Amino acid sequence: MNRKQEFDQQGFLILENFLSREACEEMMQRASELVQQFDYRGHPSIFRTEEQSRVSDDYFLNSGDNISYFFEADAFDDEGNLDPVFQKHSRSKKLQELAEELDLNPLLLIQSMLIFKHARIGGHVDIHQDSSFLYTEPESCTGFWFALEDATLENGCMWARPGGHKRGLHTCFRRKENGQGTEMILLDEEVYHTDGMIPLEVKQGTCIVLHGLLPHYSNPNTSGKSRQAYAIHTIHRDAHYPEANWLRRNRNELTGFNKHAE
Ligand code: FE2
What we know:
With 262 residues, the chain is of the alpha+beta class.
């Protein structure tokens, strides 16, 4: 079975040693610098996927076109122009080739985030599908998740259900029509459960490609070791991205992994 078949069948792909140790260190160093420069006062935004609805939070909803900071998950501008280090690692030749191999092109980078998952205080992320938060018609969201540090059972590695992406979209997170905040729309009556979910323990430098419909979650980090990760989300260039998505981006500014050729 080749990598595309494996991805289509299980909804995720684990690629060890995708990033060098130096690349991981460089991104963690840069993230640390960006966080140190940031003034948290006045920005008490916490990203929680389990929230069924969110009161209007301008900072959250306006995070699309700049580098935004959240206590648990830092969203970086996926344009990459704002920061050369993340630009470099988000638009590598290796990623371009991977997208090609998995038949994901032409794609657009729509979001990128650094997940700190600090030692002892790193929160859990409830079961979700990334497509609920980056909804397109037809569904086209794909995630590229990079372990900047080893991800283990102890420090809250990701869990996923192999093949779970075949069931379709469970919920859709969107802006309310009246403009007052956001809501979670239930599309599938089945209650989310963790049956059949397996832990994806991976070493530093591993890339996990995630189908947008794959249910996944992670436990809190109760260990003394942080579990930093960097994640990029993409959508297909030809798919419709409704205005109701919480994340609004200027479509004309979005590009693929190969910024100049696509
Ligand atoms: Fe996710």
